[in-house]
Amino acid sequence: MKKSYKILSSLVLGSTLTTSVALGATNELSKVMKERGLSEIDVIRAAKTYNPTGIKDKYVVFSSGGQSGQVIVYGVPSMRILKYIGVFTPEPWQGYGYDKDSLAILRQGNIRGKEINWGDTHHPALSETDGKYDGKWLAINDKANPRIAIIDLGDFETKQIVPNPVFKSDHGGAFFTPNSEFIIEAAQYAAPFDNEYHPIEDYKETYRGGVTMWKFDPKIGRILPKDSFTIEFPPYHQDLSDAGKGESNGWGFTNSFNTEMYTGGIEVGMPPNEAGMSRNDTDFLHVYNWKKLAELAKNPKNVKIVNDHRVIPIDVAVKNNALFLIPEAKSPHGVDVSPDGRYIIVCGKLDTHASVYDFRKIKKLIDNKEYSGKDPYGIPILDMKKSLHGQLELGLGPLHNQYSPIDGQVYTSLYVDSQVVKWDYKKLKVLDKENVHYNIGHLAGMEGKSADPQGEYIIALNKLSIDRFQNVGPLHPQNHQLIDISGKTMDLLVDMPLPLGEPHQAVAIRASKLHPHVRYKMGTNSKTGKEHIGKTLAGQERIERKGNHVTVYATLVRSHINPERITVNKGDLVTIHMTNLERAQDETHGFTIDNYNQHGSLEPGETTTLEFVADMEGVFPYYCTEFCSALHLEMMGYLMVKDPNKKYESAQKLKMKSMTTQELKAEYDKTVAVNKATDAVIQSVVKFLKDNKFENHKVVADLVTDALDQYNKIPEQKKKSDEAFKKGDIEKAILFENMIWQLMVKTADVGIRAKDTLVRKIATKQSASAARGEKAFAEGGCNGCHVIGKVSSGPDLTGVLQRHENGVKWVSKFILEPETMYDDPYVKGMIDYFNLKMPNQHMTEEETKDIIEYLKWIDENANLF
Ligand code: K7E
Ligand code: CUA
Question: pTM value?
Fold first, then answer.
């Protein structure tokens, strides 16, 4: 233990074990390791995944949320969850499915008029340019109710849901073609394309599989259903798919199971599906020329129209040399094209092998029309052996693949063996295996399915977690395990429980490729990206009534909702357009009306609409649901619903004691004086900011803009106050003065944040020791009494080292053992003055040294505080 511990110390701290600082940290580290039972390797793994506060991740992962119908966003290597995106399922936090605009998106997903409020998301896909992720759009499929959704990575919101017009389930989607021209969606369970009943006995004749090629416009980020088409396939159950790239660009690959076309019937004494559907030794990989088929689809002669959608029949595809089959080991699962597009790896699932197909060989057979036969639907079959580069035994249950930046290397998940295997698909050699827990499905590499894999990490998406976490009842969370693949052998770093549905595929992208916006242009409908019809600016708030339709144009800004009373009749249709007038980063307001099942989330600049029938009489508070400011609880109002057939009598009789004019005047004077003093503080901050050229620092300049936003509202309130005062309504004048104070507090709040940020920007760089000292100063509670640059409940510490002879020694001693110095005349005087004694905070020698360094740094920058 001792020996290995020394190695660790030098690993963590460099080789300078001689300084006492290092020794202090080492002692602390060894204590923590002992207490928590951590080994050296554990600590190294922790260091590889730990992000100190404020430090961001290198990669962002988009994981399917399985039966949750959502998408989960998290960071790598920290494995911190960043967001759940509502896609096929309502998501209350973001108001998704609760406000009118997002409900319209969710309802695009209606199938034959039926509302569907969940999905089974499997495969998220990032949009591509030249086969590389461009960070613009994310598509994901719903297996249960065959649909594709599009998420805008400008704001991580779902913008479009497109139901498949002919499939009754899907699986092999979503996959972008290399320049995002199309999104592939392959069917799963064969079914009739039309919406009628067809007896199962007619399966071979009337049931069909296929691949829908969804035309995508990468500029606007939308699927164009009218320009899309489906390629009809035999009623084999199609499974995963992938788009060719590089030399296989223009081609698509979709595998299948149940080429036996078995239809089961346990209830009538037939052997179950699983027996009949895995009877043959091989199934078929579908190989199709989507580029050619897209051209063919433009001619009405080549398509039949089913449910208002173009379908290319099998015989048309065959006649035009655009559809082929290649045998593959039975019931395969993943099919993944290599970064250069030459190889296609198909995983065995029931077979222990992975099969590596060579597109060059496939292409040659196709060009030479060298077929080994035809399937019952007339589709040419290519010889398996002649198409293969080779096969390699990997282990039990190979499922999915992710590529490495190293030529020829690939990572494959082994479901039954619960392992990730690293192997060379060119030399057909296993290189390494790593155990995972348990039963891995997909695995996610960093851009591992793009033309530009990054390596570094693999995430194992495990189906079972069993004993990895606290028992939270029979339904366990999923477990995503982060594996370091940067070394010669793989190393499992950390587990992340994922309690939201069963993720299937996840895709990772370099965070540097994402550029989401911070706020919306004022009045934006985030769902369309255009100006919202209900956009309302300050001063335009109003309530309009047309018959029994009441339309409210409302605004939200810290800390009020305007209007604050909405009175309607029972039975009225109420439309509330709301605009969040904030421009400050992260100043979201939420809006709900109690008991009315309404919720909207308004990001800065966003406009959204709530719409409902006021079918219950009564008084219903509405309020902001985000703790947005110190006066967040006051951000409320009332929806009053009157029954027009009832007569309401006034109940007013409580007489409140009113204030005398003199008392009112006194309160008014006091409020005005407080405002003046507050303004003086603001002006001093403004002077500091200007003197130090805040405009040279964008972050600071942004904060100043936010602060001015608040400050510039003051003159209008002042005018109202003065008018009221002139008219003798002192009560009202006081209220407006109070509003001015609220605006000043908000201004000061942001202004001081701007000042602090600016100080950091222009101060001299802190030494490591001074930085630790600042932390110790804060964590030790010193800042409770000592505010730098100010006398508060303790003296200002600026210049403290100069105040005493031998300042460093004096201050160190005072920190370490203050009680021994209470009788020092200077200390005594201070104790009398502040009515407080400096307590012993039990700082260590090292911490004290660091704090002294911090105080030195303060003195260097004394002009800034
Ligand atoms: Cu293997 Cu739907 Cu991609 Cu689950 S799928 S694991
Ligand atoms: Cu706005 Cu709370």
Answer: 0.83
